[in-house]
Give the backbone structure.
Amino acid sequence: MNETYELRSAESHIEVHKFYPGAIGGVAIVALVLQAMVPVYFPGFRILDLPLLLTIYFGLSRRNPSTGLLLGMVIGLLQDSLSGPTVPLGYYGIAKTCIGYLASSIGARLDTEHPAARLALIMGFFVTHQAILVLIRRLLLAQPERWFDVRLAIAATVNAVLGTVLFLVLDRLRRNS
Amino acid sequence: MVAIPSRHKSLALLAAVLIAQLLLLAVQIKRDSRGRLIRVWAVTAVSPFERSGAWGLGKIGGVWNHYFALTSTSRENEALRVENDSLKLTISQLQSKAAEADRLSALLNFRHSQTKVPMVTARVIGASAGTASRIVEIDRGERDGIRRNLAVITPDGAVGKVIEVYRDTAQVLLLTDKEGGVGAMLVESRIQGPVGGTGEPLLTMKYVATDDKVNVGEKVVTSGMDKIFPRDIPVGTVQEVKPGNPFKQIWLRPAARLERLEEVIILLTQESVDFTKESETPATPASTSSTATNPANASAPTAPAVNGEKP
């Protein structure tokens, strides 16, 4: 029996969601393309981190830590690849691997379907993601990077609010069990 | 054999994946390798979507601008007519001054030299996928003769340099990136110093001594010393100056609209020295000459009539 069903038996009130075939990959590609393209026309869009929101969403929904961390790794490495040679491969990869793992682990223990819970979780994960990026910059790359500031707080809030709405849209991709 | 509990399996997988990526990071730092193969795959996979997206958005924008957003067209036409008359007058005055300058200083015909500077225009089809870098992706690549370290400009000023080239696309590192930069000088005082990015919309000019006088509003242009950009391309305007020890802290507003780039010009030559040499003649205001010849300098600031740069 796979791990998902073990978790289900342990936390019987928490449902594991499955998605239509290709939905996760398709949505991830669309998110990366949008993340790379839309800021050209709307610079303010840069504040959104769609790949992170997807990592959180699929982590919380699938509730399988292995799937969550692998999905986070793939999305993060693709984001690294599209961020130009000044961003080393693994920069976003490591951060999103951790977020994927954390999101799916938390998703396996808590009910994360309520919009208020999602709002708080996205904000928390956004700040954690940023903290990991700062640590990688400072410790591994030996480059200066600022800790938290007002703009990060604004970005976390914007991502949390729009992420909550996005999650409601993504819920429609779920396959009925 | 001892069975590993499933929760420990995921923890072990997490550790393995993290270690693998840490090693990947370490290899890139140690060998200065940039994982080109993975990047080529990713960019090749995504750029067709970006290209078609840019095309689609361009079409939608065109339809909107030409068929729906016409309410203020008449007023704009009138304003443009007035502006056109004013510009004609300005052009006539400038032509007269240029002719006078030609007689007095035996200025070389830089319009001729301008045709020798090969350049390619490109459309911006993408940007960085994260906030960690400031790059844009353009729809020209190796097949169009684009190479690494070519200067990228707009008619407003310097934009950045080509940092990675693929078959049909290339990535441009903007001046505002933390690793972006350009050799520059202040137009009035001719003080030189590198201008670099901070990841923020403003640029910083470094290594200008506290004793040197720098005025807010002063223009900054390329010095040509980086062997990437030709001289006298506008870089920005001094917005804030703070005293420091031993160097001032100078903040510039970029001349080009780096936050909203749609089309750029790539100078297809790295031989900026040759380009500059052509614009250096005895008793000739070098920057004015360059301004007259380079389309990038259409809005270049007027330089003082001095020769050369500060040594």
About this structure: The first helix of chain B runs from residue 6 to 31. The first strand of chain B starts at residue 119 and ends at 127. Chain B touches chain A through 54 residues (CB under 8 Å).
